[in-house]
Specification:
alpha+beta; Rossmann fold; two-stranded antiparallel ribbon; 2 helices; 6 strands; 18% helix; 36% strand
Length: 112
């Protein structure tokens, strides 16, 4: 059995925000691999970094430190132009049906 391809690779990821003179550490030294076909749930209390992590993976925000690779591309080191092109292209890619796992050209399932 072959190992599934890693779609998201996160190493040492951190995200800090400034609140006045205070630094808020939202994510610290996060390591995570998300493989092709994985189904995950992010759970935690309000303010624990769930939305921050999704914004970082989606290229909507930049990490304070660490590496973030999505589909083989280093998102953390992309310039604004490359990041905009990547996030724009990814929003128009095919998705996978949630019931039958077949590729679907739209975000809605064909078999639902």
């Amino acid at each position: 059995m072959s190992e599934k391809k890693v779609l998201v690779r996160i190493r040492g990821l951190a995200k800090d925000y400034k609140r006045g003179v205070e630094t808020v550490h939202v994510l610290e030294k996060l390591d995570l691999d998300i493989r092709e076909g994985d189904f995950l749930a992010l759970m935690g209390p309000s303010g624990s970094g769930k939305s921050t992590l999704l914004n970082l993976i989606g290229g909507l925000d930049r990490p304070s430190s660490g590496t973030l690779e999505v589909a083989g591309q280093r998102v953390d080191s992309m310039g604004d132009g490359a990041l905009a092109r990547t996030t724009s292209a990814s929003s128009s890619r095919c998705t996978t049906c949630c019931r039958c796992s077949r590729p679907s050209a739209t975000s809605s399932c064909r078999c639902c």
